[in-house]
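User: Hey, my collaborator sent me this sequence without any context and asked if I could get a structure. I don't really work with proteins. Can you help?
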Amino acid sequence: MRDLAPILLFTYNRVEHTRKTLDALCSNPLAGESELIVVSDAPRIQEHVEGVEVVRNLIRSKVWCKNTTLLCMERNMGMNENFLVNITEVVEKYGKVIVLEDDICTSPQFLNFMNDALDVYEQEERVMHVSGFVFDISNRNLPNSFFIGAPSTWGWATWKDRWQKLNRNAKELFEIAQKNNLYSSMTLDRSCPDFWNQLEENALGVHNDWDIKWFSSVVINNGLCLYPKHSLVVNIGFDGTGTHFKNGEKGHTTVFSKIQLRIEKMPIEESLIAKRSFVKYFKSKQLTFFDKAKYKLNLLKSKYFGK
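Assistant: No problem. I've predicted the 3D structure and written it out in C-alpha cell form, which is a compact way to encode the shape of the chain:
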C-alpha cells in the first residue's frame, strides 16, 4: 500500500471558494486514497460567524477524500499562527504534508505529482519544498520538473526534517539575510524585490506572515524547490475576498497542465534556464518608480509612527 501524504486544507468563511477547491481536489484519482485534514479558523469578528459555520457544514456534508477530519479552532488564530501550528503538528505526525488553502484549485494530476515528488526526493535534504504552482513562464526548453532556489506556497508540500529548518523569527531571518548578502538570492537576481520587502516588513513588525518566514528559511538554507513544467494549480482568490490580494489586483495567473507530468530524478541543482525564465517573468511585473516610492514612504511611516 502506497504511503500517501496527508492533505492539509486551511479554510475560513469563503464557502464558494472552498467548494470549488474541494470539488477540484476530488477530481484527483488519488483523492479516494488520501487523508484530508481541514483546519477551520474561528471567526475573527461577529460578522464572520455565519460564514465560518457555513463552510464547516460544507466540510461535514460529505467525505471528500478517503477520510475527512475537520479541526475547528476554538479561537481565532490568524494566518501566521494557524498555519505554523497546524502544519507543524501534521508534518510531525505523518512525516510529510501537502498544503492547500481555500482558494487553490488543483488539476487532476496534482496529487500524483506531489506524492511522486515526495517519494523521489525524500532522502535529498537540499530539496526542501515541492510546488504545484508555476508562474506563466516560457517553458519550451524545460523538463517536466526543475529546481529553483525559491518556493511558492500555492499548493505545496514538504517533509518533516525540512520543515524543522523553519525559523519563525522574522527579525533574525532578516539579519541573517543582510549579513550574508542574500538580497540577490531572495529576489531572484533582483527581479522581485517584493520578497525582500515582505521580509523587512515582518522584521519591523508591520506584518506577520508565515509564508515569507518559510520562503526565507529555504533561501538561507540554500534549499531548492521542485516545480512542474506546467502549473497544477490555479489561484481563484484574486477577487478581493482574500487576506493578501484586494479586489482588482491581477496577481499571478496561470492555466492548468493538460498532461500528466512524470517525475524523473534529476541532479540536485538549480535550473539556470528556469531561473532566467522566472527573472524575465518577474521583471515584466516590476513596480513603477511611483509604486516603489510609495512603498518606501509607507514603510517609513510604519517604522516611526506605528502600523
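In plain terms: The longest strand covers residues 35-40. You can pass these C-alpha cells on to your collaborator as they are.
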